[in-house]
């Protein structure tokens, strides 16, 4: 007859009675894990591996074993994902700064985005949607050149600035094959 105080196997996720003792090892003389028969065998097989590890390290290893020791996260991937999200609002060509905006510095990694930041900002500069057609871009460019031309703005320097931005935006889009 089993004593009612028999502890549950201490192997993570196991509910079998912990009928077998396994020495925790060098760092914990006289201390034991309580395992079921299957897990005391598993433990003994990997005893050398665990020797000298702290309890929490052993427990973490066993928990990993439940999922086949596959890495549950990758620092690199997570970091990269976060960086990408922020970079989406970056300003590789200093457009924002030029327009009195909010440049966050040069980000060469943006080069590989499907619609790069510079092109997105160029479209925004022209007041166009991301889906603007070449014809729409050309038409808007002509319209804005007329609107901001210094000749029709009495030599207004802010108009000149806007015209420069329009021309730069158009040339960015042209280089990228948008129009
Ligand atoms: Zn067990």
TrEMBL record:
- Per its UniProt record, what Pfam families does this chain match? DnaJ
Give the CDD domains listed for this entry: DnaJ (cd06257)
Which residues belong to any copy of the J domain?
Answer: 121-178
Under InterPro entries, the record lists:
DjlA_DnaK_co-chaperone, DnaJ_domain, J_dom_sf
Source domain of life: Bacteria
Q: Which SUPFAM superfamilies match?
A: Chaperone J-domain (SSF46565)
| PANTHER family, per database record | CO-CHAPERONE PROTEIN DJLA (PTHR24074)
- What is this protein's record name? Molecular chaperone DnaJ
UniProt source species: Azorhizobium oxalatiphilum
């Amino acid at each position: 007859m089993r004593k009612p105080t028999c502890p549950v196997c201490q192997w993570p996720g196991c509910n079998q009675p912990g009928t077998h003792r396994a020495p925790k090892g060098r760092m914990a003389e006289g201390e034991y894990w309580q395992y079921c028969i299957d897990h005391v065998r598993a433990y003994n097989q990997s005893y050398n591996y665990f020797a000298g590890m702290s309890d929490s390290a052993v427990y973490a290893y066993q928990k990993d074993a439940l999922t086949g020791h596959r890495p549950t996260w990758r620092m690199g991937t997570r970091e990269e994902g976060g960086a990408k999200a922020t970079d989406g609002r970056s300003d590789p060509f200093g457009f924002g700064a030029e327009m009195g905006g909010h440049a966050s510095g040069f980000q060469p990694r943006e080069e590989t985005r499907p619609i790069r930041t510079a092109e997105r900002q160029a479209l925004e500069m022209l007041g166009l949607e991301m889906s603007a057609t070449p014809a729409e871009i050309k038409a808007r460019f002509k319209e804005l050149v007329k609107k901001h031309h210094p000749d029709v703005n009495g030599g207004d320097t802010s108009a000149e600035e806007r015209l420069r931005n329009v021309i730069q935006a158009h040339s960015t889009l042209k280089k990228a094959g948008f129009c």
